[in-house]
Every structure is written in structure tokens, then in C-alpha cells.
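Check these lines:
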Amino acid sequence: SLKMASDSPESLMTLCTDYCLRNLEGTLCYLLDNETLRLHPDIFLPSEICDKLVNEYVELVKTDSIFEPHESFFTLFSDPRSTRLARIHLREHIVQDQDLEAIRKQDLIELYLTNCEKLTAKSLQTLVSFSHTLISLSLFGCCNIFYEEENPGGCEDDCLVNPTRQVLVKDFTFEGFSRLRILNLGRLIEGVNVETLLRPLASLAALDLSGIQLNDVGFLTQWKDSLVSLVLYNMDLSEEHIQVIAQLRKLRHLDISRDHLSSYYKFKLTRRVLNLFVENLVNLTSLDISGHTMLENCTIPSMEEKMGQTSIEPAKSSIAPFRGLKRPLQFLGLFETSLCRLTHIPAYKVSGDKNEEQVLNAIEAYTEHRPEITSRAINLLFDIARIERCSQLLRALQLVITALKCHKDDKNIQVTGSAALFYLTNSEYRMEQSVKLRRQVIQVVLNGMESYQEVTVQRNCCLTLCNFSIPEELEFQYRRVNELLLNILNQSRQDESIQRIAVHLCNALVCQVDNDHKEAVGKMGFVMTMLKLIQKKLADKTCDQVMEFSWSALWNITDETPDNCEMFLNYSGMKLFLECLKEFPEKQELHRNMLGLLGNVAEVKELRPQLMTSQFITVFSNLLESKADGIEVSYNACGVLSHIMFDGPEAWGICEPHREEVVKRMWAAIQSWDINSRRNINYRSFEPILRLLPQGISPVSQHWATWALYNLVSVYPDKYCPLLIKEGGIPLLKDMIKMASARQETKEMAR
């Protein structure tokens, strides 16, 4: 089913929601006084749509860097007569007091506020307006919601001396929340009296007190007939806690797990405690004891343990106390305990670190509220993906994507998650992934690059991008990828390996793409960035991959793009070309890339006068004899000169070398090349070559062009014959054969 889910297109509802949120002004809203969003008066939306709009909005603000949040977004939902809200999930700094205040007239049934650190006690008062309808409420990680600002002295002048102080609100309780059944107070601030806070609630069904330290939990027994779910993650337990829990006989889900790295716990689990749970909590279907140390051995003898086929039957359980269960548990959390490595565990789903299934279960169970555990689970997945083969690839990928989206600012998750993605997207898994899934990967990778200037994350993200077909698969985020890579390359202090990968990616991105893409990237400063890299390498006297890739990227980005060619000349590109030639006379690959680029510059008529200097012409003429990279350097040098010759004798504005002398060297060079040479070059269009055919001003240019076409169509007929026909080369060749000025050998070749 997961395969199906990831492949199926987005629902129409999702697409419309996304479109409306990105175009609020053009769809649901108009702008009042050029600043405030207002709903069109004829719009009435039910809660099914409004909930989705609000929840998607929060998601977009959180995960899409291009999406702009609106100051007045929540005011669109202030009037229940036109917009109804019922179930909303708000997170982090996206939500402020005034946003909740704006929707206070709504009859909310479910309100999840996760890590909303900007909310203060003002929002506690707003919660009261939902008290008659709220069934489910989460204040997880809202660390300031019990603080109000106190203004000491109350006078204006005094405030400057004593800025507002944060004071803990002591008198708030859930009085009047008559329908509240599900409550999450995870990571509640110290000093709030939980017992007093909760006392007015008549019948709680689910309570989460993660990360709160309570010495006395006796008050929980007031809900012993209604409580079905209790979470006490990271609470330091004692015998008293255990006795209270054992009285909550209706419990179906109990979580007493802990993060074994977080602090010192006196409490140790024993066989007796587990027995007590099994005997008293007869409805239990889910139990989490992750991170606990077992004080004594709870396992059956190892001989018996290894016997028979793996079983989830309680009677065969390797963990002795669980033999008393009536039926297998739906879920058993054993992450970072020794018990998860046993053979017979009486549960359908187990979180642990023994194998891929257990690790994925852990990531799934803990991502939302426990990033500290999740990052360690993803680290285990990383090892599995790197060393063995992942058998549940799609599930693994989706879980990592979710974790990276959910914890965009958590360094550990960004580091481990981006590393895992690299292994989960490499070529051996390629076939199993849909376009939609691969796009999601690209999105979270780019988010990571944006949020983290940290070397490891940047490297992992760049490496992961290398697993994609470039530029095709990155086309949908083309501008953004280029901006991020140029950003990396423009940093003053650079990590060598990242620099190398980033230049490689930049080069691939401008290879074989449309000219408007190249122009756009040129305007972003691409040419300048590459020249700066070359300058740095020259100063260090190193010709490495970064140097070669940078020239190659310039070759690609100037292809049939005059603006970028002009930028190359304006930013002293020719000076760098000459210096590189002098500094690295033996580097063939480098010479080929540089001359390929100059070939592009020479194709632009308006720029050719800038190449017309004694120094440049001498350099190009000498390179005609170069044997670097087969014929490539000589061929490109001859190409540059062919375009210059095509401008005629009157454009030859120099005394030395003489035009005739250079022409003679060009003929000699062309005659020395093997007509069947295999080539290190890729033509998207023959137009710049074909324009050298119908002219009599420079027979040698005509001959170079004919030789180039002949070589390419004979060595690579499948690729280049159709291109020659499509671009009208045949009639041009026929006409040239009739020309008196054309040389005999040129006509032969053309024929």
C-alpha cells in the first residue's frame, strides 16, 4: 500500500489548497489598504476546507522557504459565519498570541500547539474561549504559555529601567473544559502545579506528561475509570509511581520510556514491575519501556530462547513476565534496551535497534515529539542502508523525509537524515522510486542546505543531489539549486570536498539546458563565481578538479549565450585564460575546456574584435599544433580562428602575425587531423558551424566547418545526421559544392 500511496498523484483537494495558499489574493482574498488580507464577502467555507487551509499553511511556512507568511492570515478565520475551524495543528514560531486571539470565536474540537514558544499566558486566556467544545488539546513544548509579562511599578518611566519581567501564572486551571478528554502537557515548564491544573477535568482518556518531574502522581487515580493512555516519557519513576500506574486498570497504552542519555535515573525496571503491569493492566495493547536498564534478568534460559521458529505468542515469550499476557501487544517499545535482541517478543510491532524493521518502527513512533531519540534511530538506519540493503526502502525514505521536514532546525537530525538520504537515493534503489518521492527528497535536501551552513550537512546534501539525473530531475527547482550552490561557492572559507562537489553540480546544471536557463543563472553571478574560483586556484598554483570543472562550467554556460560570453570578457576572463595556459602548459583537459569556451565567445560577432590582438592570435595559432586531448585543443583553436577569419581581411587589425601566415597554419592543422577521431564534445546545434558554409571570404573557415560536420556525422551518425537535416545543412552543402571560391578538397568532403 505504501508503494501505491507514494506513486498516486496529490488529491484535487490538496492541489487546490496549495494553489489557494500560494495565491490568496487571486483566489479567496483581497488586500485592504494594501496590507491586510480580507476574505471576499461571498465566500463560505466548511471546516473540512478551513482546517486543511490552516494546517497546510503551517506546513508551507515551515518547510517551503519560498512561501511568504502573511501577518493577517489567521484573521481570515475570525468569523465562524463564513469560515469554520474544528481541528487544527499549529507549530513553532509560526503562531503568536494574536493569531489564536483572531480565531477565538471558533468552536474548536481539536487544537494541537506543538513547540509554539512565542505563545504566552495571553493565549491561556484565549484557550478558555474554546473550553466548551475542546475535546483534544496539546500544549507540547509551549514553554512560555504559563508566563505573563509583569510591568513592575506600572509607570511609563520606570519601564525603561525595569523592562517587563516574566512571571509564572499560578491561578489558571482547566475549569470549565467539560468535554476535554485528550491532553498533552509534554515539556511543561517547572513550577506549574499539574495536579491543581488538571483537577477540574472530569474524565480524562489520554494524558501525556513527557519530560515533567512529579514526585507524587497519586492524583492520576481520579481518572482510573477513564484513562486509557498515559505517557510519562523521561519522568524519573519510583515505587510510588508504579503502584499508582498499576491502579489505572483501563490503560490500553502506557509509555514509561526514557532517553538513557539525558540524565541520571535512579529507577531500574525489575521483573516484578513488569509482572505487576501484566497482571493489573489487562487491557494493555501498547507498552513502551525504551531506554530502561533492567535490574535483573527477565529473560528465559538461553537454550529455550533459541529454540523453534520466531513467535509472537505470549506463551513462548523470551521475556518471562510477558508470558502472562492474554494476547500479543500491538506495540512494544524496546529501543536502546537489551530486550529487543531476544528471539520471541510477543508484539506485532517492536521498536528497537536489532534490525531494519525495529529501527523503522522507532523512527515512526518517536519522530514527532522525540527528535533526540529519532536522530539515533536514523543513525542506525544510515548504517543499515550503507552496509546492507534496505528491504523497506519506500517506508525508510518517507520516514526520513518526514523527520527532516518536522525538525528543520535540529542539527543532529539534519546531519544523520541527510547522510541516510544519500544512501537511500543511490542508483541501486533508483527503480523503486517515483518522481513524486524523488522530488520530495530534493525539496528536503534544499531545505537542509538553506537552513544549515554546517559543513557536514552541506556535504551530505550536495552528495545526495549527485544521485539525481542533472539537470532533468532538478529542473523544477532550477533557480533555487543554483542559488544555493553559488552561495556555497562564494563563501570565503571553503571546505575542499564541498567545493569540488558543488562545482561539479554547477557544471552539470548548465550542461544541455535551454538558453533562458543559462541566461538566468548568468545573471545570478555564475560567471563571476567561477572566475573567482579559478583566480584562487591560480594563486595557489594548483590545477585540480575544481579548476577544470570551473572552466568546463564556463564552457557550458557560454554555449550560444552571448550575454554570458560578454560577462566572461568583462570580468577579465582572457587574462585568466593566458595565465592558466602559462602556469599549466601540460594540462590537456584544462586546455580543452578553456578553448571550448573561447570557441563560444568567438561565435559572437560583436565580441570578436576583443579577441583581435597580437597576443591572443599568436596564442591561438600556436595551439593549432597542440596534440592535447587528441585533436580537441587544436580543433577548438582552429574554430576560434575560423570565426575571426570569417570577418574578412579588413577586420584583421594587427600587423603580426600576418593573416595569410595564420591561414596556412590552419590548413596544415586540419590536414593533420584523423577524420575518424572520436570526440570529446557535445553539439546541441550546428548553427554556428553552418553559418561558415555560404561564404567566399574565408575558404579555410569553410573547410574547418565542413570537416567538423563530416567528422561528427560519420563517427556519430545516429546523433548528428538528424540534427544536420533538421537545421537545413543539406541545401547549404549542395550550394557550397557549386561555389567557385571553395577549395576542391572541401567540395569533396561536402559531397
Confidence is low (pLDDT under 50) at residues 1-5. Residues 612-750 form one domain. DSSP finds 32 helices and 14 strands in the chain. The two ends are 62 Å apart (CA to CA).
